[in-house]
Design brief:
alpha/beta, 5-stranded parallel sheet, 6 helices, 5 strands, 44% helix, 19% strand, globular
Length: 165
């Protein structure tokens, strides 16, 4: 059985992420969407909350599993017996960093390949950072995040703004 991993911080999951999940799930018997910790980013949601939001957003995909790991991706892939990492590319600016990570991951786990999926053009502008900024200003998040989590994102932003004010 072929299993791939789609790693990310998913803070929060966007429709761009969901598009990559849907397309990758069609290519493999199983897809593990793995919430990973990015030490360079401050989280809006805890890793456990991100897992739950992803589970709500991906429930319709029977071959998608959502997990969390705070280990190196290469080690996680080895432990889960996955041979492919799926990464979405929005723009050329993503490419350099993602290729560098793919080379490092293969150095750490020589059996691990990385498959790049180009973002659908309607999501090339979309990122979790943009979603957070739009939520901060009360913008309608429809068309940016899965409908299952719009209320969760808005609620968290109100909580965060209440603490800052």
């Amino acid at each position: 059985m072929s299993t791939a991993i789609y790693p990310g911080s998913f803070d929060p999951v966007t429709l761009g992420h969901l598009n990559i999940i849907k397309r990758a799930a069609a290519c493999f018997d199983g897809l593990i969407v793995c919430v990973m910790v990015n030490s360079k980013k401050t989280g809006m949601f805890t890793p456990e909350e991100r897992v739950e939001l992803l589970r709500k957003s991906t429930a319709r995909f029977p071959n998608v599993e959502v997990d969390f790991s705070n280990e190196l991706l290469a080690a996680y892939a080895k432990r889960r017996r996955a041979k492919v990492v799926v990464k979405g590319l929005r723009a050329v600016s993503d490419f350099e960093q993602e290729v560098q990570m793919a080379v490092i991951n293969r150095h750490l786990n020589p059996k691990l390949e990385t498959m790049f999926l180009a973002s659908s053009e309607k999501y090339t502008y979309l990122s979790s950072t943009i979603v957070k900024e739009m939520a901060r200003y009360g913008t309608d998040l429809t068309g940016l995040v899965p409908r299952e989590i719009v209320d969760d994102v808005n609620r968290r932003m109100r909580e965060m703004e209440g603490k800052e004010g």
